[in-house]
Amino acid sequence: MKILYTIADLQPESGGPSRSVSALAGAVTELGAEAEILALEYGSKAALPKPPVNAVKATWVPCRGNLGRNLKWSPGFFPKLVSRCRESRDCVLHDNGLWLPTNHAAARAARATGIPFLVSPRGMLASWSLRFRRFKKRLAWVLYQRLDLLSARVLHATSKDEAQVFRSLGFTQPIAVIPNGITKPQDHGTTGLRDHKTTGPQDERTAEHGPVVPWSRGPVVLFLSRIHPKKGLLDLVEAWAAVRPVGWRLVVAGGDENGHRAEVERAGRDKGLADRFEFVGEVADDKKWELYSRAGLFVLPSKAENFGLVIAEALACGVPVITTRATPWEEIQTHRCGWWVETGPTPLADALRQATGLTNAEREQMGRRGRALVEQNYTWPAAGQKMLAVYQWMLGLEEKPLCVV
After folding, report:
1. How many CB atoms lie within 10 A of CB 133?
2. What is the widest separation between alpha-carbon atoms in the chain?
3. Same CATH topology for 2-181+380-394 and 185-377?
4. What is the pLDDT of residues 209-236, one digit of tens each?
5. Residue of 90, 91, 100 lying closest to 39 (CA atoms)
6. Spatial distance between the Cα atoms of 323 and 305, rounded to a whole number of angstroms
C-alpha cells in the first residue's frame, strides 16, 4: 500500500503541519506502508525544506518567481501528482491544508484518477481562520474549496472539537478523529524544569543550528510557534504589561509571517516592555528541545488551533502550559498540568499571575503530570497505527476502525 501526502511545502517557517505531516508519513512507513510526500520547493532564495523522516520519499516540485512563491503555485504540481497517482495500485491520496493551489490540485488529481482521497484541513476551518482574510476565502469557498472538501471520501480531524466544526459546516462524510503525536525528546537531553544559572550573554546565531539559547537571567516564559495574528501575541503583550512578573522574562521563538513580528515588537515598546521580551527567530529542531528544557512556563494564547503540536511538546518536556480554550486541550485543566483559559488579555493575565506566583516545586509537579499525559496519549506510533487502519478501510482491505465517526 502506498500513501501520497500532499502539502504546500515543508519549509521550517510553515509551522506545525510541515512537521506533523512528515512525522505521520514516517510513522506509517515504520508500520510497513510506502509513503511519499509531494511538496513545493522554492529554490536558492528560500530556506531549505525540512527533509522527511525515516524512509519517506520526497518529491520536490520547483516553484520559482516571487508570484509563484507568494501564491504557493507551480504549473508542474498537478501533472506530477497525477503521474504519481497513476503509478501505484492500492494508493491513497492524503492532502493537508486548505485554500492553496496545491490543495485544489490534489482534489482535481483525485477526481481525475479515481484514487481514494482524504483531507486534513489542519485547523483551517476554525471560525477564526475563516475570518482571517475573509474575502479571499469566501471567494475560494464558492469557486472550489467547498466542492473539493465534498469530494473527499474521509476528512481527518485532530480533535473532537475540529470534527464538530466539520459537521457544523455541513460535511456529512466519515471523519477520522486522530490526534497528532510528538517525537519524544529523551534523545535531546530534556528533563523538564531546570534551574536557570548565569552563564553570560550568548548572542551567536548560526544558519545551520538556529539561535544559541540567549537567556540565563532567571525564570522564562516561552512562546514557540509561528509569529502570526492567529497565535494571540498581541493579547500576550497586553497580559504581560498587566502582570509584569518580577524576575521573569518572555522569550518568543518562531518564524515571522507577513511582518507580524514588527507589529508585536511595536506593541511591546508602547507598553514599555522592550527589555522584557526577547525574540530569537526561527529555531531548528535540534535547538527547540533546549528552549523547552530551560523554560519555567510555556504559553500559546492562540485564537484557533486544531491541535497545537507545541503544547504537546512542552508538556512532554515537563513544562506547565498556559493556553486558550480555542485549542482542544481541556486535558491540561483536568490533568492539572497548566491553565486552559478563555481568549483575551484578561484571562491570560490571570493565568500568568497564578503561574508565576507558584513555587518551583509546584510547577515541577505540574510538569510531571503533563509529561505523563503525553506519554500515555500522544505518540506518533499510536497516531500512525490509527491512520493506517483508516487507509486500509478506504481501500476495502479492513473493517471501519473505531476512530472513524
Report:
1. 11
2. 62
3. yes
4. 344 444 443 599 999 999 999 999 999 9
5. 100
6. 10
> ∠ at Cα 87 (83, 92), nearest 5°?
90
Grid cell for residue 240: 504581560
Burial letters for 241-254: b for 16+ Cβ neighbours within 10 Å, e otherwise? bebebeebbbbbbb
Angle (nearest 5°) at CA 188 between 185 and 191: 70
Task: Give this prediction's pTM.
Answer: 0.77
CA-to-CA separations, 120 to 131, 180, 307, 319, in angstroms, rounded? 19, 11, 12, 28
Cell for 158? 485532530
What is the CATH topology of the domain spanning 185-377? Answer: Rossmann fold (3.40.50)
Whether 361 and 376 have beta carbons less than 8 Å apart is answered as no
Alpha-carbon distance of 398 to 392, in angstroms, equals 6
Q: Determine the Cα–Cα distance for residues 33 and 37; give it in Å rounded to an integer.
A: 13
Domain edges within the chain: 2-181+380-394, 185-377
Ramachandran region, residue 139 (left: φ > 0; alpha: ψ -120 to 50; beta: rest):
alpha
Cα-based distances in Å from 105 to 38, 62, 79, 148, 263 = 11, 15, 9, 10, 34
Q: Could you report the per-residue pLDDT of 111-152, keeping only the tens digit for each?
A: 999 999 999 999 899 888 898 889 999 999 999 999 999 999
Q: How far apart are CA 355 and CA 6, in angstroms?
A: 40
Beta bridge partners of 154: 118
* Sign of the Cα pseudo-torsion (152, 157, 160, 165, in order): negative
* CATH pick for 2-181+380-394 out of 3.40.50.300, 3.40.50.2000, 3.40.50.880, 3.90.226.10: 3.40.50.2000
Smallest Cα–Cα separation from 120: which of 349, 390, 333? Answer: 390
